[in-house]
Design goal:
The complex is a heterotrimer of chains A (152), B (385) and C (265).
Chain A lengths: L1 H4 L1 H4 L3 H8 L3 E5 L4 E3 L7 E7 L2 E7 L2 E9 L4 E2 L13 E4 L3 E7 H10 L1 H26 L12
Antiparallel strand pairs in A: 1-8, 2-7, 3-6, 3-8, 4-5, 4-7
Chain B lengths: L2 H6 L2 E3 L1 H13 L3 E8 L2 E6 L10 E6 L2 E6 L16 H4 L3 E9 L5 E5 L7 E6 L1 H15 L6 H8 L2 E5 L10 H4 L11 E8 L2 E8 L2 H9 L3 E2 L2 H15 L11 H7 L5 H8 L5 H5 L6 E7 L5 E8 L9 E2 L2 E2 L4 H20 L9 H4 L7 H20 L1
Parallel strand pairs in B: 2-8, 8-9, 9-10
Antiparallel strand pairs in B: 1-11, 1-12, 2-3, 4-5, 6-7, 6-14, 10-11, 13-14, 15-16
Helix pairs in contact in B: 9-12, 9-14, 10-12
Chain C lengths: L4 E12 L2 E8 L12 E6 L3 E6 L2 E3 L2 E7 L3 H7 L6 E8 L12 E7 L3 H13 L7 E7 L11 H5 L3 E4 L9 E2 L4 H5 L7 E6 L2 H14 L6 E4 L15 E2 L2 E2 H4 L2 E3 H8 L5
Parallel strand pairs in C: 8-9, 8-12, 9-10, 10-11, 12-13
Antiparallel strand pairs in C: 1-2, 1-7, 2-6, 3-4, 3-7, 5-6, 13-16, 14-15
The chains are: A alpha+beta (152), B alpha+beta (385), C alpha/beta (265).
GO biological process, one term (chain C): pyrimidine nucleotide biosynthetic process
Cofactor (chain C): [2Fe-2S] cluster
Keywords (chain C): 2Fe-2S, Iron, Iron-sulfur, Metal-binding
């Protein structure tokens, strides 16, 4: 299964991966479902198995601006790992999504009780955040834009 | 032709023979260019007789300094590199590459420039400069696409080399293995000899046309005394080089010191004026300029020398790639001494010393290379320690 | 030195607000054939010439996608059908697709970097039996800036597209093109990759592919520097030991990476 081969789960050692998956249940979202909202309680997270999820920010007077999309193999949600456990973006399914769904609380507890497992999970989440930060910074350069900035 | 045959074909001419050489070359339809004194320097210009050669003139060279000095011995070729090199003639500062005409329906016809070029004879090509011509041959005609503007001038050129007997204080041809003895590629090679037996030139032919010209010259058979005097003077010159390069593989040195502190030091002095690139006999970079006449239907493509020290040299839509002076000096030096090997199979430096002499602030490429070598040595030692 | 050969503009298509594709046919004699990845110097009468990669090769016909960034590109972008331009070439190295036979192909394009990759994808699609899976990953600035939308090869190649910024109408992916690598279908040790785009995008993409296990020797990238002559004589396009008009624009990643890491080389 490619969702295990690479992506978030692929970065975990098999033992930790199996342990994490004991917390998983299968979830399906029809297209257009809003999975969570900005500032809502970050009490769950998902590993996307298929479909496309758009992360957006509410801007008054305009439709929610999509800042990034996530797909197969991606971790959906990391605000559950850090206080105050509030989503900093909203998430909406572009297309029907299947995912592994996890409750945050028991995973956080397991991480606290077993530092080796906790470190492994935290490292994986940190790696996801680092990659997204790197990609976002690269996008900030507006590399494909008109040289010198702005549109011609 | 083997060296042995060439030796057997050597001869001795005197100053009258030198006059005759110029006359014969001119009679063969050639534009003879040689050293002559003008505006306080020994420049390269068209000459019509031996009297225009710089008999009795030498030069004093130092970093950022060039002075003509009178010589008592009356030698014609006891001077070293001047402000120009032969690239001025073979790879001129400005050439028209093509013309294009557009007719009423918008069709364009492009015509390569076929302005006749002179058949040059270069008199007084120093061994370092002979190598520089070979280096430019490789750059401009050695690849998949030849530069026809260069090739047309080069194919017709007759080269009279003169071995070096009086190196300047900025010369380092021995380090670059280009002199002071003449290498291959000449039509005629001369060695100037002045001693109790008189002022004369040992002449050898290096090509069929060279041999034909030599046969026309009023000359006498070479004697062993002249031969050995010529050999000795060149050998002595090798021991009197004003500068040296560090005795290391310069290509590797350049590759391994791209992040050296020394580049900051030299850049604090460098004005990025590009003089070094203009006087360098191998620097070949050019830019192009497109012009149209007032009708707008006749366009021309001109090419002129450009320097890698120009900020716009590496302009891409977002700006210059080599923006800092540091990166531009480093590009010039590492290209000349290092990456030229990767691109064209040899060093781009022939040890003529012009870049040292004509640098307004006296930056010395040999001093920079020694400093880079010392810095590399220090950092290697630190790593080992 | 080479002299421009007259080519007539036989088609002109506006791709995006600042980009157009022109199709050229030799007015008389044609230049030698171009290979995907190679470039031409295209001359706008009296204005000058610029390097343009070929985005289509159809017999003696050439197509170039031009983005307006200066006087020459502006003139070529606005050129009318029936007018004549001058073309020199073919110059530089090509993608050398044949060396990728039997491998999964990963083609990653950023912005106008798709232009030189287009003929590579077409060539791969024309001989599918020679390759394993084909992945074409495209990153654009906005949906309006995407090139060649709706061309049949995009569906045939199953391209994946992502944009940096999306408007409300966009239902596709948003994010850096590297994120598409995670979802592409390839076996890293048996993969050949081809990348063209802005240099930071090339570096990020190649690094990700290497991290995934693709052999750096199997990654080829197309680089850009100033080019005036195309023939290796003007000296402008140097990148350390490389003359990019001659030794590039397509360069192996193993060769390119250490050079791109040196600032202002």
């Amino acid at each position: 299964m490619s969702v295990v081969r690479h992506g978030f789960l692929g970065a975990l050692a098999p033992g930790h991966r199996d342990r994490l998956l004991t917390f998983a249940r299968e979830a399906c979202f029809p297209a257009e479902t809003r999975v969570f909202e900005e500032a809502g309680a970050a009490d769950r997270f998902w590993l996307i198995r298929s479909g496309l999820v758009a992360l957006d920010i509410h801007v008054p007077g305009r439709r929610a601006a999509v800042v990034e999309t996530l797909g197969e193999g991606d971790l959906l949600g990391w605000s559950w790992m850090f206080e105050p456990y509030r989503w900093h973006l909203g998430a909406r399914c572009h297309a029907a999504v299947t995912a592994y769904e996890f409750d945050a609380e028991p995973v956080r507890l397991a991480c606290a009780e077993d530092p080796a497992f906790g470190l492994a999970v935290t490292r994986c989440v940190a790696e996801v955040i680092a990659r997204r930060l790197k990609a976002t910074r690269t996008r900030l350069l507006d590399l494909y834009g008109f040289p010198g900035g702005g549109t011609p | 032709m083997t060296g042995c045959e060439r030796d057997s074909a050597d001869a001795v001419i005197d100053k009258d023979g030198m006059d005759a050489l110029i006359t014969i070359l001119a009679a063969r339809g050639r534009t003879v260019v040689g050293p002559t004194v003008r505006d306080g320097a020994i420049i390269l210009a068209e000459i019509s007789g031996g009297a225009e050669l710089p008999y009795g003139w030498g030069v004093e060279l130092e970093a950022g300094r060039y002075r003509l000095v009178a010589r008592d011995d009356g030698a014609a070729f006891a001077h070293s590199a001047g402000p120009q090199s032969w690239k001025t003639f073979l790879h001129p500062p400005r050439v028209r590459e093509w013309s294009a005409d557009r007719d009423a329906d918008g069709t364009i016809v492009v015509t390569a420039d076929d302005t006749p070029v002179p058949a040059y004879a270069f008199l007084g090509v120093r061994p370092c400069d002979l190598r520089a011509i070979a280096v430019q041959d490789r750059v401009l005609t050695g690849g998949r696409y030849g530069d026809s503007a260069y090739r047309r001038r080069r194919d017709g050129a007759f080269l009279v080399a003169v071995e070096c007997t009086e190196p300047g204080a900025t010369c380092f041809c021995v380090s670059m293995e280009t002199g002071p003895a003449v290498g291959p590629g000449y039509d005629l090679a001369l060695t100037e000899v002045l001693d109790g037996d008189g002022h004369r030139f040992l002449v050898r032919a290096g090509s069929g046309e060279g041999a034909a010209v030599l046969a026309e010259l009023p000359s006498r058979a070479a004697d062993s005394a002249t031969r050995s005097a010529a050999r000795d003077r060149v050998a002595e010159a090798a021991d009197r080089m004003g500068r040296t390069m560090p005795l290391v593989d310069l290509r590797t040195l350049m590759r391994e010191t791209l992040d050296a502190e020394r580049w900051n030091d030299v850049t604090s002095r460098c004005l990025t004026c590009g003089n070094c690139t203009m006087v360098c006999p191998t620097c070949f970079c050019t830019t192009v300029e497109d012009v149209t006449d007032l009708t707008g239907d006749h366009a021309e493509r001109w090419r002129h020398w450009e320097s890698c020290f120009d900020r716009d040299f590496t302009h891409v839509p977002t700006g210059p790639v080599r923006d800092s002076p540091r990166s531009r000096y480093r590009q010039w030096a590492t290209h000349k001494l290092g990456t030229w090997y990767d691109q064209f199979g040899s060093s781009g430096c022939v040890g003529c010393g012009r870049c040292i002499v004509w640098c307004p602030v006296g930056i010395d490429i040999t001093e920079e290379a020694h400093a880079l070598n010392r810095e590399r040595g220090r950092s290697t030692a630190q790593e080992a320690g | 030195m080479t002299v421009p050969v007259p080519y007539r503009v036989v088609a002109h298509r506006v791709d995006t607000p600042d980009t157009a594709t022109i199709v050229l046919e030799p007015a008389d004699a044609a230049l030698p054939p171009f290979a995907p990845g190679q470039f031409a110097m295209v001359y706008a009468f009296g204005v000058g010439d610029i390097p343009l990669s070929v985005c289509d090769i159809d017999g003696p016909r050439l197509a170039h996608t031009v983005r307006t960034v200066g006087a020459v590109s502006g003139a070529l972008h606005d050129v009318r059908i029936g007018r004549t331009v001058g073309v020199r070439g073919p110059f530089g190295t090509g993608w050398e697709l044949s060396e990728a036979e039997g491998r999964d192909l990963v083609v990653v394009a950023g912005g106008i970097g798709l232009a030189p990759l287009r003929p590579l994808v077409l060539a791969a699609l024309a001989t599918p039996e020679r390759y394993r899976r084909l992945n074409v990953l495209i990153g654009g600035r906005t949906p309006d800036d995407l090139l060649y939308c709706g061309e049949p090869w995009q569906a045939a190649a199953g391209v994946r597209v992502t944009v940096d910024r999306a408007g409300p109408a966009w239902t596709g992916e948003v994010g850096l093109v590297t994120t598409l690598i995670d979802r592409a279908d390839f076996e890293p040790p048996r993969t050949a990759a081809f990348i063209c785009g802005p240099e930071p995008m090339i570096r990020a993409t190649a690094a990700d592919l290497v991290h995934r296990g693709v052999d750096p020797d199997r990654i080829r990238v197309s680089l850009e520097r100033t080019m005036h002559c195309g023939t290796g004589h003007c000296g402008h396009c140097q990148l350390g030991p490389l003359l990019l008009c001659r030794d590039g624009p397509v360069v192996g990643w193993t060769r390119a990476e250490p050079l791109l890491m040196v600032r202002e080389l």
